[in-house]
User: What shape does this take?
Amino acid sequence: MSDEWNAIHGDGRDVARQDRTYEAVLASEARFRAVFEHSAVGIALIDTDGRIIATNAAMQQFLGYSSEELLNRQLYQLVPDDDANGLAAAMAAISSGASPELAIEQRYTRRDGEIVWAALTMSRAHSATSGKSLGVIAMVQDIRTRKSLEERLTHQASHDPLTDLPNRTLFRQRVEMALQRAAHRDRVVVMFLDVDNFKAVNDSAGHSAGDQLLVVAAARLLNATRGSDTVARFGGDEFAILLENVRDDEEARIVADRITRAMRQPIPIGNEMVTVGISTGIARPHSDSDGADEVLRNADVAMYSAKGSGKNRYQFFEPSMHTAVVDRIGLETDLRHAVAVPASEFVLHYQPLVQLDTDTVVGVEALVRWNHPRRGELQPADFITVAEETGLIVPLGRWVLHEACTQAFAWWHGLPDEHHMSVAVNVSGKQIQDATFVSDVAAALADSRLPPERLVLEITETVIMHRTEMMVQRLQELKELGVHLAIDDFGTGYSSLSYLQQFPIDIIKIDKAFIEGMERDAAGAALTRTIIGLGGTLGLSTIAEGIEHASQRVTLEDLGCVMGQGFLFARPSIAAGVGENVSKPNKAPEKK
Ligand code: C2E
Ligand code: MG
Ligand code: MG
Assistant: This one.
């Protein structure tokens, strides 16, 4: 060390900053050297040319270099390239006296290449006697632990703890950035996804099962996309995906197809297999004014539309979907009026239920239609959800029950094979939860004189899974009336043997998605076979829904399915109960 530097050691003012006691301690050079050498803080003395002229052990250890290796190096050579210019300039400013002292957080490149964070304090050293600048004293404190904690916190703030996927905030930022840097903004595609029937799994199998399901869902979404895409979880069962540089809708469609297929695969949870699905809305910016928020909202609207049209599918956003939201409000008002006098606007269509080996009709399913005064004939998909959400399904369902029982009695009463014929009525979860439901059913049977064993109540699987305690009790009460119970759309929910056994069920209706998937690949056929086998084991009848092709009927018969329903046999119509295969009715169907 030069004499002048020694003079500083002797003075110590610039190092220790004006502490009188400390000054006294530093009055001895030997003592100063001890402090310098043994300080836990890394210290480097740097001359006016920026060269390191001395370092202590802590500094050497922090950087991974020996004292000799550091000698005569420039400090800025020890930091990542991006930071070098800034550091050199800051040091020159301090050395010249232009700026007094500087405390910053600075990255260093260790000898082994590792980049580490440190708090760097630089202050000017000058001669106590002449006041001339001697250079800079740099003090370096290892802040790796704090930095990594900070990084973890930042990560936590922007990621979902369960799946470790980016959260909504980070996702929105990424969409915004993608829109800013895209040469063609319409190549940015946002998907909004919602797991179908998640709530049912969560409610019936418990939260940890729900969590497991979400983790699997996240992995499948990552698997179905590229590394450069962003998959995010928005909370609950909502996910979002950002795709950049998507040439056309077809390319987005391929990804959406892959996701839909992947999510249809059963998920092992505990000892059970759970089958869910996913509804996806797809949107891209339509105009230059569409920012991240608009695109996200449109994808959300499209997702709702996908849910509304039967779930387990994807839909591209269309501006008319916004109109649909407005439409809904009008629909609700109209529905309220129509339900007040149900017979004037509602009609039941009936679809035959066929015994596959003999082609004989063994019953019908009642399906409601709404002859809307302005919109024409509406299908259940157009209004059942609104009816359920508003509670209007309770009075509407009561009318459907009465109407179907009355019609069935009128068609078949006194026929020789009367006892074979059943009428199935769909009931929604809202109806079953309603306190009057059991007495409504009893009243419909009494008023129509239809024997109870001829009435089948169809309840969708997802409804049965909700509120298990109450559901088991309600179903038990219905069974005591003598009616039969069917699980509708089986396979779309939490399909587990153990839970099926809890319910007094007679019939399983296999969802048409399985019938469709059955001929596609071996896995699809295996699923259908499993369901039919499951029905057999539990002593239940299985009915296949949505049979459209003769080949499906053949396959189903091979798999041991006895009964079916579908366009192959007949579409729902007003007169299904008097089809050719039914013995002559004693009364023509009455047109409402
Ligand atoms: P669901 O009970 O599963 O009824 C079967 C649906 O599949 C009917 O649709 C029927 O027309 C259709 N379908 C039958 N065969 C085929 C086929 O071969 N191919 C295809 N692609 N479809 C076929 P719909 O009438 O539109 O009814 C839809 C859903 O609305 C019903 O599904 C049921 O859950 C509900 N629904 C209908 N009527 C009522 C009702 O009175 N009350 C309640 N709560 N829900 C009802
Ligand atoms: Mg049904
Ligand atoms: Mg069904």
About this structure: The two ends are 109 Å apart (CA to CA). Residues 7-18, 580-592 have pLDDT under 50 and may be disordered.
